[in-house]
Amino acid sequence: MIKHDIVVVGAGLAGLRAAIEAMEKGADVAVLSKLHPARSHSDQAQGGINAPLGEDDSWEKHAFDTVKGSDYLADQDAVEIMCKDAPRAIIELEYWGALFSRTQSGRLAQRPFGGAGFPRTCFAADKTGHVLQTTIFEQTRKNGVQIYEEWFATSLVVEDNVCKGLTAIEILTGEIHAVQAKAVVLAAGGAGQVYSKTTNSLTTTGDGIAMAYNAGVAIEDMEFVQFHPTSLYGSNILISEGARGEGGYLVNALGERFMQKYAPDKMELAPRDIVSRSIETEIREGRGFEGGYVHLDLRHLGEAKINERLPTIRELVIYFAGVDPVKEPIPIQPAQHYTMGGIPTDSDGATSVKGLYAAGECACVSVHGANRLGGNSLLDTVVFGKRAGAKAAEYVKSISDLSFLDASLKEEEKRIETLLNRKDGAKASEIKSALGNTMFNKVGIFRHKRDLETAKKNVAALKRQFENLCLMDSSRKFNTSLIEALELGFALDLAEVIVACALARKESRGAHYRVDYSKRDDAIWLKHTLAARTALGPKLSYKPVTVTRWQPEVRGY
Amino acid sequence: MKYAYYPGCVAKSGAPELYESTARVAEKLGIELVELTTASCCGAGVVNEGDPFLDLVLNARTFAIAENMGLDILTICSTCQGVMCQIKWQLDNDAGLLAKTNEALAKINVQYVGRVKIKHLLWALIEDYGLSKLEQQVVKPLKGLKVAPFYGCYILRPAEALQFENHEKPTSLEQLITVLGGEPVHYEGETKCCGFPILFVQRGTAFEMAATSLNNAQQKGADFMVTPCPLCHISLDTYQKKSAKKIQANINLPVMHLSQMVALALGVEPGKLGFSKHMVSMAKVLSVL
Amino acid sequence: MKTQEVVFRILRFTPERDEKPHYQTFHVKIDKRMTVLDALENIKHEQEASLTFRRSCRSGICGSCAMKINGLAKLACKTRASTEADKQGGVLVEPMGNMSLIRDLVVDMSEFWREVDRGTPWLVWDETLTGSTKENLVTNEQQQVSGKLADCIMCGCCFSDCVSRVFDKNFNGPASLAKIHRFVTDPRDKEGVKRVHELVGMGLWSCTHCYFCWSQCPRDVRPVAAISALRVLSFNSLDPSQGMHHVNAFMDSVKDSGMLNEATLYLKTMRWTTLRDFDLILKLAMKGKAPSPFRRPIPKIEEVRSLYRLILGGKEK
């Protein structure tokens, strides 16, 4: 039996920040991650992290941009906290060694980003995520944070609304462990792999959100899925918003800078939901290139600037699209990118279950509401990661030893045994492929009741097929087929929720766009969706949005 | 074909057989070699670890001397080749560094412009002389002897600086061996390091490196090994017995310098090629030819 | 897109079943764009579910999918299958070297991480700054060297193919030493050059300049160059290691005669350990191959010496 005061699930920015904080506050912390920390998805972020550092900037302006960007669904008290804490959070990373890009005078440089009224995105060329993840990981080595590397969490153990720990597979040996903890901090990231076209890594499968959902936590705002406007056509690898921040143009097949029609003021730097819909419209109306993409043109920036500010992107485009952005425009199309929804928490990362905390992309505080601004996710992770770690450390001081029901472990072992030993059945890769296509085509950028109903049926059918999954690999040691199957299970659970929430929300707000309900309807729909698991599928309820300073207005750019 | 000839330091003292056999090859093929007698040591990557800028400037001086002669540089040592290519690559791609270098060189009234090319004899034979032409000059083919090519490091990597062949799958030595009538033998280690750079500092490791490659080549049936680098030759030939002892293997594989192999095939008498200076006897191979 | 059928020969090892690793052959239809990772995923999903490998980002940044492809360590997601097939007639896929095998293409990287941990792999920062909201002032130029070194994604390719590491388990390895240099060159690191002191004991002089780490690095970090730079710093810090003697002797030799004097280089580096090679030296002498300790300076040696004076100036020892 493994016991710790606090177990953090996920070793990305939020998870490691929480662990460092909790350890500093004296708790016995361990991080559990299915990947080595250096491989976490945070590593892939490119564009930057926001903070109102400029003399003519302010936390109020940053907060307003965030709230407006969220299409007024964000909880404003949480947004205020995040924006006020931003300077401290980022400069802390700088002290820890983050190699941010600088101005001539040696200060942190900031670039303009989508939906921001001021250039407030600090960046490290176009590899900000890599730089920050590396820096935070280095600090965990300094502090001696214990990490259970390549351990896959399979379920949360919650008894009488108290979190007592979790079950996890030690991937190396295949052994299933009971991990007892006084508090669990979920920081396992988003759920991009629910979609076929996603910028997310193959391991971003919504594990944390699904585990909470399966343990009885009602998850929030799952219909709000961000589609990033510029992913590389073909591979859907992310091409950072920073490329547009540095001055890149979006151009259709007719050579037009089409954003003029959709956001004449902000143009390419309108918020992501608007840009994605614009690109998708251009493609649907026949002004895209064959295959379904448009161009991101960086040529006018010049080789020197591209090499200085966007070197990783240049390399990615050359390698994965066979095109040199210095000489030719980049073929791009929108792809799933971020999960605004997740496990509902307060501003300290606490959930509705005692001892269960969440931070990062898997949490829904909610600071991003219906649409996230670029640069706010990295900020979210370190601000709320720290707060969750601190809160969890405080909480565990008052908790004496928790006993762990044996039954939970036995149940998990049985479930996995059954899966391993099934001799015949459905194929995981086929289910995943079908799921991804259904979700992208029917629950994508433009939604309609008809498509959503079809998606609902498809997902239900795929879930039934999943019950009969056959791995075709019954070995125990380092069985990645098993892990991929369990991840698929999580993805299916979340897909069902996303579809249900999208069907129910009869309005368009932020990234959720209903062709059949194309207006935002604050009178009825200025509220968060909550989805709780029942035997008959997700049961929906709603809770109000916290409005402090900014009343909802028409959202134009 | 006329070159500014840079034999390197080892060919002129510890491996005189290389110097001699190169002269014979040049004679036979009508290649004019104008020796750069005032050029200094390339630094072999070691001066670079004392003072990198000094290393740059000393080599840029060599380049400038050749440029003044209006000739390209020919080397017969992979290490010289690799070091000089790296330095040229740095200077050709960094205007600031080039300016700083020329500022120093101005003190001795020399300037490096960037025109000069640097080639190893191996490359010159392929690119400038031509392998089919060379084949016609062969009078004593290698009679199907199995030859293990040892590329080593400096003539292949880093590829950006050397820009001659695919460092992952080099073929220059195989092509040369074939054209001379030999049969190239592939083995694990042909592009690995012979250990020479750490021979004086950590000989145990160096011995293991050399012996492993030699042993692999021998196991594949090689009659002899050929190397374009006299430093590799010291590791592979001079220290062969000691290396073999380190890994407790029975190794008896003679190693030729590239020039010796070419000279033999062109009909030069073995006696003139300095095989007696080798530690591992070439007698068996020579008896076949 | 046009496709060709390519033979993939992949190392297999399932610990519960196999006594030792063996190879399995697969035929895969690949197009010009497919990466080796695409092919592996294809094999796993269509032909052999038990094929095991690590992967995550599929865009060359996370470092999960490092493996040996046609004998050289690379990221599978950044290696084009058709290029490899054209080069060698097929694609040989094996796990990374210098680390023990767990299963198929998955290795135990703890040896790699242990080496990284030997070197204080974090910025030693000024902790009095905690809570302040004013950043350290550092220009892009000041961060240029450390920035490039920090591009390292810790994939292990350099470590896998490091020739020295095969035989010398004390050698800290290219990635770790490059990471140390990343901190040495960061103006904010309080330790800075002091980090160099402990490196001799960690195999600073074990690197043999084979340049495999430079060639195989998917991020162009060039660890070997970092190691040379660390050696320059160690040289300047008057650390009396054998590697240092070697550099000193070489520098002296070139200043003295313009050429490498192998005899004095050898004697000054090896010192009394020269006795180990006494038999060899004797044999070489008899063959007329022992280099003379007296080397006549090259003509125009004054040019060389004046460059030494100009560049080393007061730094000379």
Description:
The complex is a heterotrimer of chains A (557), B (289) and C (317). Chain A is 37% helix and 18% strand. Chain A is of the alpha/beta class and 557 residues long. Among the domains of chain A are: 106 residues, Succinate dehydrogenase/fumarate reductase flavoprotein, catalytic domain (Flavocytochrome C3, Chain A, domain 1); 122 residues, Methane Monooxygenase Hydroxylase, Chain G, domain 1. In chain A, strands 1, 2, 6, 7, 8, 9 and 16 form a seven-stranded mixed beta sheet that branches. Chain A is globular, with a radius of gyration of 22 Å. In chain A, 65% of the residues are buried. Chain B is an alpha/beta fold. In chain B, helix 1 packs across helix 12, helix 2 packs across helix 3 and helix 9 crosses helix 11. The longest helix of chain B has 18 residues. The two termini of chain B are 29 Å apart. The model of chain B has no long low-confidence stretch (mean pLDDT 96). With 317 residues, chain C is an alpha+beta fold. Helix content of chain C is 38%, strand content 12%. In chain C, the strands form two sheets. In chain C, strands 2-1-5-3-4 form a five-stranded mixed beta sheet. Chain C has a two-stranded antiparallel sheet with strand order 6-7. In chain C, helix 10 crosses helix 13. The longest helix of chain C has 16 residues. The model of chain C has no long low-confidence stretch (mean pLDDT 92). The interface between B and C is large, with 62 and 66 residues.
CATH C-level name of the largest domain in chain C:
Mainly Alpha
> Which range best describes the helical content of chain A: under 10%, 10-25%, 25-40%, 40-55%, 55-70% or over 70%?
25-40%
Q: What share of residues are in beta strands of chain A?
A: 15-25%
What is CATH's topology name of the largest domain in chain C?
A: Fumarate Reductase Iron-sulfur Protein, Chain B, domain 2
Poorly predicted ranges of chain A: none
SSE order of chain C: EEHEEHEEEHHHHHHHHHHH
CA-based shape of chain C? globular
Helix percent of chain C reads 25-40%
Question: What is the fourth-level CATH superfamily of the largest domain in chain C?
Answer: Alpha-helical ferredoxin
What is the first-to-last residue Cα distance of chain A? 55 Å
What integer is the average pLDDT of chain A? 96
- Share of residues in strands of chain C: 5-15%
Q: What structural class should be given to the helix and strand makeup of chain C?
A: alpha+beta
Shape of chain A: globular
Query: Which spans of chain C have pLDDT < 50 for at least 5 consecutive residues?
Result: none
Quick one: biggest sheet of chain A? Answer: 7 strands, mixed
Report the structural category of chain A. Answer: alpha/beta
Largest sheet of chain C: 5 strands, mixed
Termini separation of chain C: 65 Å
